[in-house]
Fold:
Amino acid sequence: MDRLTLNASAGYYTYDSEISDPTISGYVHSSVREQPELSYAVGAQYSFRLPGGGASTPRIDAFYQGERTNGVVGTPQLDPYHIVPDRTIANARLTYTPGDSKWSAALSAENVLDKFYWAQLTAERDPAGLVETFDQTGVPGRGRECVLSLRRTF
Structure:
């Protein structure tokens, strides 16, 4: 199909430390996952031809990121204080290109379902920065964002 585009990518990450003694510098607890074990992205778009030679191209994408941790690497990662939950975010876009193809207009939405998620999440530390108080703090992910863009090529 000439006007259909499909894409997919995936990542798998695993880590095993050679240091198993918690008293040795560089020890990483087995529950630590600073990078998600699994992540993937899929997308599809199809360009519909319009009268006069123009095109309308809808596109949808989905992105998944597995859970990861943010605690001190030498200690067990406690849920919910150190574990950033997994998430799937969907994006959509509709592009119009007229027959002369010198300009285009696109309406897009990132996080189109307006899903709440944590970009960063951890337990707070005491004023000295040493002891975790287990009050949860974090940075929420971006909500739905809609954009209208115009493009002109010369």
User: Anything to note?
Assistant: The chain has a mean pLDDT of 90.
